[in-house]
Each structure stands twice: as C-alpha cells, then as structure tokens.
Amino acid sequence: MKRYLCIGLLLALSLCFVACSAHIEDTNGADDHSLTTITKKELLGNSGAVKFLSVRSQVNDKIEYSVDKFTGVEMVEEVRVKNGTDSITFAVNTTLTEGNMYVYVRHDGQIVGELAIGQDDALTIEKPTPGKYELCIAGESANFKMVIQITQN
C-alpha cells in the first residue's frame, strides 16, 4: 500500500512540475502588462491555456474568476446574440498582480473590443450582429482576479 501511495505522490508532483514549466515568463517587467509572446493568430484561435489554482464562481449574473498562474488564451464566457438585440455590454473589473494579460471580446474570428486591466471597464456593442460573442483572456504567467457581468438589451 505504501508503495502505491509513493508512486501516486511522485506522479502528481511530476505532473505539477510539467505544468509549471509550460508557463511563458513575463519578460517586459512588472510595470508593462502587454503581451510579448502570444500572437494575434493565437488570440483569434483556440490555442488553450495552462492554469494553476483556478477558481470560478457564479452568483446570478456575476462571475468571479481568479487564477494564481495563467498562460495561454482562454474563452471565459460566451453569449449568443439573436436578431432584435439592441445592445450587449461586457462589464469587467480585472486585478492583475503579476505577469502580462489582455482581456478582449471576439466575434466571427475578429477582435471587436478590448477591456482595460486594473479598473472597472465596460464595452457596449450597439445593434450587435447576431451570433456568438466571446469574452476572452490571454496571459503570460498572469496572476489575476476578475469580476464579470454581461447584459443584453
């Protein structure tokens, strides 16, 4: 029994070290939060992400999301817009404590807006084209917390 426990522990530790080594380091300093390695092609695609200590919760229409170490591109929330929608608003408050991060909205393979980091910010799209709108994040060794609220009128 002890042998299986030791093997399981060694396997878990080795997987943790592999995940930590996949992170892109912050090479442009603590004051510059712009991305340095992730490309626009990756921002528009589904390239995936590596996360360590991720927590996501939702109460009513407010989403809280935090990650201790995040690298890659991830679609955080998706909204389907139908004909007759007057507007859609993405309200986001992002606190970044280390690394690089970019928060944006994409639709039909294009970035249609971006949201500021370190403050309350909102992006409203008037008379949106029907289809899928995705709130996305891209990060390079980012440690962050987000509060998200999306409304349609």
Summarize the structure.
With 153 residues, this protein is α+β, with helices and mostly antiparallel strands. The protein is 16% helix and 58% strand.
Tell me the series of helices and strands, N- to C-terminal.
Answer: HHEEEEEE
The rounded Rg comes to: 18 Å
Overall number of structural domains: 1
| Poorly predicted regions | 13-21
> Residue share in helices?
10-25%
Please tally the β strands and state the result.
6
Describe the fold and architecture.
- The chain is α+β, with helices and mostly antiparallel strands.
- It has one domain: Jelly Rolls.
- 16% of the residues lie in helices and 58% in strands.
- The protein contains 2 helices and 6 strands.
- It has helices spanning 2-21, 40-44; strands at 48-59, 62-81, 87-107, 110-115, 120-126, 131-152.
- Strands 1, 2, 3, 4, 5 and 6 form a 6-stranded antiparallel beta sheet that branches.
- The longest helix is centred in the N-terminal third of the chain and has 20 residues, at 2-21.
- The protein is globular.
- The N and C termini lie far apart (59 Å).
- Residues 13-21 have low confidence and may be disordered.
Topology:
Layout: H1 2-21, H2 40-44, E1 48-59, E2 62-81, E3 87-107, E4 110-115, E5 120-126, E6 131-152
Antiparallel strand pairs: 1-2, 2-6, 3-4, 3-5, 3-6
